[in-house]
Amino acid sequence: MERIGLVLEGGGMRGVFTGGVLDVFLEEKIEFPYIVGVSAGACNAVSYVSHQYQRNYRINTIHIKDKRYLSLGNLLKTGSLFGVDMLFNIIPNQLEPLDYEAYRSASNKLVVGATNCITGCCEYFPVPDLELDYKPVEASMSLPLVSNVVEYHGVPFLDGGVSDPIPVRKSILDGNTKNVIVLTQHKEYRKKPTSTLSLLKAKYKKYPRLVEAMERRHLVYNETLDYIKKLEAAGNAFVIRPAEPVDIGRFEKHPEKLAQLYKDGYHITKKQRDALRAFLGEKDC
User: Fold this and answer.
1) Handedness of CA 57, 270, 170, 189 (dihedral sign)
2) Whole-model pTM?
3) CA angle, 195 as apex, 194 and 201 as ends, to 5°?
4) Burial, 2: exposed, middle or buried (Cβ in 10 Å; 0-12, 13-18, 19+)?
5) Residue 285: predicted pLDDT
6) Alpha helices, DSSP H, located in the chain
């Protein structure tokens, strides 16, 4: 049987769309042994692997107003717009407990990508036990300019989406001949060059390869979209994405908007359910 991977794009708070998609997968008992994600995609994958329905929805609609989660105060105090203690301690251990045992015992293999600040290239890490080691996910989610560099095994990392925004090639390299790809932008979207290059050069002057990766990011992203289109035409990719342009920024804090985007992901996936099952060969992956 062909191996089918699940590929999850990032996109900051646009990732609530992915949360809606993954909750349909949980409802329909659609399993993927291999999952690769970057940034918000990696974060959403965690609740999917632990089989915790609507956990990400609750996090992003109930707790988004908590200043410990996302605020300028965090940025001024800690250097990170997103509260690291909130994301990796308070939420998973107190407010929306992560089922660590379910995560550990799951048959799914989660791989996350993070950008090596020295080389400017994406490195990929399996995450078998979040209770013991969540650093790869933290690194993958650490957005340039608004997050601190994350040291992992002595190497500085930032957002995986900088160097590999849609890691479908990694999934193929790891042996998946077909892939279900969840994007957080609509079909006609194309990324534009960064408007913050001067700030990036100033902040990361000791990481010139990282700056180069940021400068090329739109080219890599758009080329990957073209590649995915070819995979679709060949019957080797099934893409789930918003039907319309997404009116939500990376740092959106309005619960109503976030809830609606989640519902969009949920309903779009429900409508594509039969086509998806046909792509999967009417079997769990």
Assistant:
1) negative
2) 0.95
3) 80
4) exposed
5) 44
6) 16-28, 40-49, 55-62, 72-78, 84-85, 100-105, 135-141, 168-173, 197-203, 208-233, 255-271, 273-279
